[in-house]
Design the sequence.
């Protein structure tokens, strides 16, 4: 685990090598690298993982990043003003919050800004974000020719990319295409007649005449189009945003290489393709007048000043920050109050320790389980249980660990004696069904197929309406997984896992490791509901392997030598929490000694009861009506017409790393990531370092994904789920064309009447010494950026129960709980 | 009471859909599942009436030939059952799928109205009612295609469809006018009887030929025949259930029209030949284009184009009962495929979607093909369907065997595999011929028998078979090159031969002044 900890920490920093800050004399290549780094990678839907959509802009604050995105994509990073106006009217944001936000943002706001001016701004219309978007030659040509060139070329590139990256939807495709994207696109553009049919004379010849190498092509851009070097990276970013979805997917494809510190070039290939259109349009349409207009546009690029942005849109940032401060104010009061009432109970042996993923949905279940079984202790830990593994079957390999890690080992089925038999049956079944589904897709066989077998779809429709069809639970087979590790590796992993969750002594007789996964039907976004820490899969394999590891006598023997003594009678059991139905399945109980049978029965009963409580709690937000909530949840899971099987992580806003006692009295409404951490058992702050650089960063990615999808679904989200059209088995288009969509669909954020998710950047509360936290942040650049620019709003809870907020841009801390005093202190400084 | 009154029960199906349109507008969500399938239940009753009392028509609820009347025969009952079942499924699906959407009430109501129009069309017993239902169906659907009016793509596709539909309407009005004028009645049963009795050797067929041509034109426009197919592959700009209803229901209306007037078609063999020719072209091009589509809905849409072409080919070649089988089978399949299209990611995840390649060289696989075809033909002959008796059915079924051959040949070949393969081919053939026989028996009194195939028809049939064989072989071996002619061909096909682009430009879809920025 120590190894994986370091890998994790270094991996967080790895991709950042690309996020070099803009330098004035960037070469073309550096400009391309810088622009590509601002495009967040996009994971395919078969294992969708939340990514911070502003990954490349973390070095900027909300205002600056907002300006960058408005310029590049006409995107917005705050909600429409009516949203804040309502929060102000409902007094969810108060004057004290506005004052605090104004003080903190003093440098960016005009003088004389007061809560009253902000309140007035909230009711006033501000210029649309699209107005800030930079021009391209395509937009200019659009005005000149009356043809929507930009929309056309986005469709054209998207169409090519769908084909190039296709994972098997098209029967007749260019699969196995090994050429670089630009080379492939250039070849296609030299035969594609669409542009010429729209009046772009000589387009094919122009494309054929462009350099075959993407980098030489990009070199041509500043010369031909006359883009000044200092504008180049912004201009490139603007171009890439037209095809940000596919560029993001390209970046995902190069992700493993990026993790290893190599430079991924895939997004730059997409940039070359988009830039080639600028060159082609320029060459084909660029008459004297248009060329002059273009130079004027470029001059505007250079003159674009910040004052207009902050003058007209600055108030939005104040409102957003005030909203966050208001929520933090209430959360702080809640937590501090709980500390006063909490009594220090003496330590006794708990009957059950149950470790869940830090996922916000676990909080509800943990709370319910604790209420059903007061003797139980629950633990929060990343759902991959620290095992940097993957899983392999006939369909290939997949990672079962966070995307910041590369799997070191691959698990396979077959950990039990009857496995080989089951394995054979399942592989034959899979081969047959795969052959069969191919046959259905044979071009001409389909004619006869519908005549001979069309009628069989009548019972299939019936099954689907009843809800038995289409259900795809993402837990793997019922077969027991196994992974080849030598004893030292096993012991290392086991130790890292236990130390990571601060569980090194006082073991209960029963220790449960619960992964999570979701069940839904006919849902392209199914994996978005699964465990992100397990790489967008259900967490059963990791939980089962972790339990097996710790039940191993030899491992326990060696752990003893490392001063972790697991009592003889302690049994580790694995489970899977289905977040749609809130049922927990336990695994691998066959070999359990009969002495444990009673407590397992009791456990199963408690899990059932807890599940029922959670379903009741969720019923309101799910609009589940009727007497039988249990059935309503099951129905959702199996309903092929269900676009909201569950709310996923919607509502997520806080990350708390502390002993469970700090939060046990509280209902956190399923909106907080909870990680167990006890600074007492971490003298070197190694565990703290892992928590801050890995789970915390991942939690911020998830929160920012929800944030982006909510504030600007058009740019950072995937739009209307009812229009989704799965492309290449990779992602979705909205409707018939356009760019590949990223982020979350509206249906995951909005209930049709209002947003269920509230866009808030992550509030982190860590119980640890401030100096240790500062020290770790100073050593991890990407973490420092996230914290200093308030993408993560970091708080520390100290031993005396005092809450401190880290000030932006420094190692200073401000005491929270007394806003007025806080504001005073800041002003004095 | 006249037993004919029982036939009027069929009218309750569209009436129930109308009632639902009112009810669902007030309560789009949280209604009992049974409500969606009530019209289908009534359709079952109507089918029972037809089975017990025989085909016939209800008395006219109206005056002077104008009014409501239902014709119940094997064709209308089959389609009534089909449309009401698929309609119920789509309504049921939409109940949850659009839950929370601000315009959910309108959606449910428009869906239900469209279904009322389609069910009226299939049972209408007079040409006036039929015409009215035909236009209403198209107008209701238009509202659904524009359910997301803010999307420029939706407006372009709906606009294109709207124009084609109006051309179709006009052409159908003229055709019906000629029929009423020539045969002196607007009552469908009387009209069909008159057509059956018409002696083409003595009577003047000019008027009928014009009517038949216009009906064929309307049908081809409605069923998205090449090159008017463009709108069908562009209408994914509206929620999935609309696509399902369209691809599994409304688009079949063209086929239904030809089948309804099959007695007219048999009188005008030249028109039938043109229908077959257009259908075959559409089938081949549609299938080729379908293979190149990387989006799930795009692939399904081109598949519909191809299947509609195939159905038109069957109609044109006079294999009417086979066309009905095809229409029903395709609708059920396509409804399921569209509504379940979100499962595509899971399929990729499970590794289902990889393309087949033939293991052996194509000529080395030929003996296997011969064996499989042999098994197929033998089964057919045993069941009384030889080439002499049912040339079209036998020939078209052989295409299915070709497809199976491609996948059989891609795998490992042992004696066991061979015998298993032949057994399954025999089984599938028995199923195929069985269904054809049942359909033939059911529809024998409703639809005319397949006319004798002339030379031209035989050439068309032969070219379809050859093209299918070529495509099968090509799919297994030649398609995957990345350069050269095949790659270029693939590219142009994937663009739908640019037809949509040209038409869209002409319609001003690319004009920055007309459409809002995407």
Sequence:
């Amino acid at each position: 685990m120590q190894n994986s900890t370091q890998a994790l920490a270094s991996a967080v920093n790895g991709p950042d090598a690309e996020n070099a800050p803009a330098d004035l004399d960037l070469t073309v290549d550096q400009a391309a690298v810088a622009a590509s780094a601002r495009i967040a990678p996009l994971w395919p839907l078969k294992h969708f993982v939340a990514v911070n959509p502003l990954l490349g802009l973390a070095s900027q604050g909300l205002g600056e990043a907002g300006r960058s995105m408005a310029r590049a994509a006409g995107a917005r990073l705050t909600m429409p003003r009516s949203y804040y106006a309502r929060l102000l009217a409902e007094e969810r944001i108060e004057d004290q919050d506005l004052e605090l936000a104004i003080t903190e943002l003093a440098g960016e706001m005009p003088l004389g800004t007061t809560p009253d001016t902000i309140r007035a701004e909230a009711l006033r219309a501000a210029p649309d974000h699209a107005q800030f978007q930079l021009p391209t030659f395509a937009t200019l040509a659009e005005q000149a020719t009356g043809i929507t060139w930009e929309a056309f070329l986005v469709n054209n590139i998207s169409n090519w990319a769908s084909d190039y990256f296709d994972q098997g939807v098209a029967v007749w495709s260019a699969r196995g295409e090994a050429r670089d994207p630009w080379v492939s696109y250039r070849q296609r553009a030299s035969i594609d007649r669409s542009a010429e049919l729209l009046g772009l004379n000589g387009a094919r010849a122009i494309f054929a005449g462009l350099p075959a190498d993407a980098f030489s092509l990009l070199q041509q851009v500043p010369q031909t189009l006359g883009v000044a070097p200092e504008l180049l990276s912004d201009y490139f970013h603007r171009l890439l945003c037209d095809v940000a979805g596919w560029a993001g997917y390209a970046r995902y494809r190069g992700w493993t290489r990026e993790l290893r510190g190599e430079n991924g070039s895939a997004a730059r290939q997409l940039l070359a393709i988009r830039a080639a259109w600028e060159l082609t349009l320029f060459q084909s349409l660029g008459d004297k007048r248009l060329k002059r207009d273009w130079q004027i546009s470029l001059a505007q690029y250079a003159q674009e000043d910040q004052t207009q942005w902050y003058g007209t849109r600055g108030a939005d940032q104040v409102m957003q920050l005030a909203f966050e401060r208001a929520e933090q104010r209430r959360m702080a009061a809640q937590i501090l109050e709980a500390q006063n009432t909490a009594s220090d109970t003496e330590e006794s042996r708990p009957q059950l320790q149950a470790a869940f993923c830090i996922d916000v949905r676990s909080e509800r279940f943990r709370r319910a389980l604790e209420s059903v079984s007061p003797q139980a202790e629950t633990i929060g830990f990343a759902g991959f249980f620290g095992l940097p593994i993957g899983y392999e079957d006939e369909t290939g390999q997949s990672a079962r660990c966070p995307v910041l890690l590369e799997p070191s080992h691959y698990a396979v089925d077959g950990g039990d004696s009857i496995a080989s038999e089951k394995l054979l049956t399942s592989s034959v079944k899979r081969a047959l069904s795969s052959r069969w589904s191919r046959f259905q897709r044979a071009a001409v066989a389909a004619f006869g197929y519908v005549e001979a077998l069309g009628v069989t779809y009548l019972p299939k429709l019936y099954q689907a309406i009843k809800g038995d069809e289409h259900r795809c639970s993402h837990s793997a087979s019922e077969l027991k997984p196994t992974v080849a590790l030598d004893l030292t590796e096993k012991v290392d992993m086991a130790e890292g896992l236990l130390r990571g969750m601060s569980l090194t002594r006082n073991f209960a007789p029963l220790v449960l490791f619960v992964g999570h996964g979701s069940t839904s039907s006919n849902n392209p976004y199914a994996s978005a509901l699964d465990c992100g820490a397990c790489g967008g899969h259900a967490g059963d394999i990791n939980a089962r392997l972790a339990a097996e590891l710790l039940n191993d006598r030899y491992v326990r023997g060696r752990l003893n030598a490392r001063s972790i003594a697991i009592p003889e009678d302690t049994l580790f059991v694995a489970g899977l929490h289905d977040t749609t139905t809130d049922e927990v399945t336990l695994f691998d109980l066959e070999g359990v000694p009969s002495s444990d049978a009673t407590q397992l029965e009791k456990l199963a009963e408690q899990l059932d009861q807890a599940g029922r409580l959670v379903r009741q709690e969720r019923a309101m937000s799910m609009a589940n009506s009727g007497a039988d909530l249990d059935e309503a949840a099951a129905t959702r899971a199996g309903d092929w017409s269900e676009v909201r099987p569950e709310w996923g992580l919607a509502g997520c806003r806080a990350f708390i790393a502390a002993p469970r006692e700090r939060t046990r009295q509280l209902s956190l409404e399923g909106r907080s990531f909870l990680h167990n951490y006890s600074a007492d058992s971490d003298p070197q702050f190694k565990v703290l370092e892992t928590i801050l650089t890995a789970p915390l960063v991942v939690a911020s990615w998830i929160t920012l994904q929800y944030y982006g999808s909510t504030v600007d679904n058009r740019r950072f989200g995937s739009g209307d789920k009812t229009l989704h059209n799965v492309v290449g088995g990779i992602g979705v288009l909205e409707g018939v064309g356009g760019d590949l969509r990223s982020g979350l669909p509206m249906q995951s954020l909005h209930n049709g009447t209002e947003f269920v998710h509230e866009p808030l950047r992550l509030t982190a509360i860590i119980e640890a010494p401030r100096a240790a936290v500062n020290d770790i942040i100073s050593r991890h650049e990407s973490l420092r950026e996230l914290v200093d620019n308030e993408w993560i709003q970091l708080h520390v809870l100290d031993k005396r129960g005092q809450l401190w907020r880290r000030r932006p841009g420094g190692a200073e801390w401000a005491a929270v709980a007394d806003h007025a005093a806080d504001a005073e202190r800041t002003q004095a400084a | 009471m006249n037993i004919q009154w029982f036939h009027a029960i069929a009218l309750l199906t569209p009436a129930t859909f109308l009632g639902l349109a009112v009810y669902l507008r007030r309560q789009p969500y949280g209604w009992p599942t049974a409500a969606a399938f009530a019209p289908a239940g009534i359709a079952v009753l109507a089918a029972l009436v037809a089975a017990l009392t025989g085909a016939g028509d209800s008395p006219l609820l109206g005056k002077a030939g104008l009014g409501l009347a239902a014709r119940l025969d094997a064709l209308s009952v089959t389609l009534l059952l089909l449309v009401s079942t698929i309609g119920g499924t789509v309504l049921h699906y939409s109940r949850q799928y659009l839950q929370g959407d601000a315009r959910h009430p309108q959606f449910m109501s428009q869906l239900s109205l469209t279904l009322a129009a389609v069910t009226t069309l299939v049972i209408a017993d007079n040409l006036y009612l039929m015409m009215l239902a035909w236009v209403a169906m198209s107008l209701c659907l238009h509202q659904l295609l524009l359910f997301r009016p803010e999307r420029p793509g939706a407006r372009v596709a709906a606009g294109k469809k709207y124009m084609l539909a109006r051309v179709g309407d006009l052409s159908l009005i003229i055709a019906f006018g000629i029929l009423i004028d020539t045969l002196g009645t607007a009552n469908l049963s009387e009209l069909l009887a008159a057509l059956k009795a018409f002696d083409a050797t003595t009577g003047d067929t000019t008027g009928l030929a014009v009517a038949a041509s216009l009906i064929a034109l309307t049908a081809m426009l409605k069923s998205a025949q090449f090159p008017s197919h463009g709108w069908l592959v562009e209408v994914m700009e509206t929620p999935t259930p609309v696509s399902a209803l369209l691809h599994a229901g409304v688009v079949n209306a063209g086929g239904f029209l030809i089948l309804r007037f099959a007695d007219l078609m048999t009188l005008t063999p030249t028109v039938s030949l043109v229908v077959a020719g257009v259908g075959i072209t559409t089938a081949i091009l549609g299938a080729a284009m379908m293979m190149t589509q990387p989006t799930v809905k795009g692939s399904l849409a081109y598949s519909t184009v191809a299947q509609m072409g195939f159905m038109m080919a069957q109609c044109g070649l006079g294999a009417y009962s086979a066309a009905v089988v095809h229409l029903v089978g395709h609708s059920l399949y396509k409804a399921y495929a569209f509504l379940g299209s979100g499962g595509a990611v899971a399929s990729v995840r499970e590794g289902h979607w990889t393309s087949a390649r033939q293991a052996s060289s194509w000529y080395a696989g030929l003996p296997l093909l011969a064996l499989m075809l042999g098994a197929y033909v033998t089964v057919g002959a045993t069941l009384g369907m030889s080439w002499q008796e049912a040339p079209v059915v036998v020939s078209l079924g052989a295409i299915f065997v070709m497809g199976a051959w491609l996948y059989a040949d891609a795998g490992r070949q042992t004696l066991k595999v061979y015998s298993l393969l032949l057994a399954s081919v025999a089984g599938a053939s028995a199923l195929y011929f069985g269904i054809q026989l049942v359909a033939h028996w059911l529809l024998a009194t409703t639809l005319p028998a397949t006319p004798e195939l002339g030379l031209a028809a035989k050439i068309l049939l032969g070219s379809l078979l050859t093209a299918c064989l070529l495509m099968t072989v090509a799919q297994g071996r030649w398609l995957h090159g990345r350069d050269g002619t095949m790659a270029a061909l693939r590219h142009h096909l994937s663009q739908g031969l640019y037809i949509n682009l040209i038409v869209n430009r002409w319609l001003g879809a690319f004009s920055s002044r007309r459409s809002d920025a995407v």
Notes: The mean pLDDT of chain A is 86.
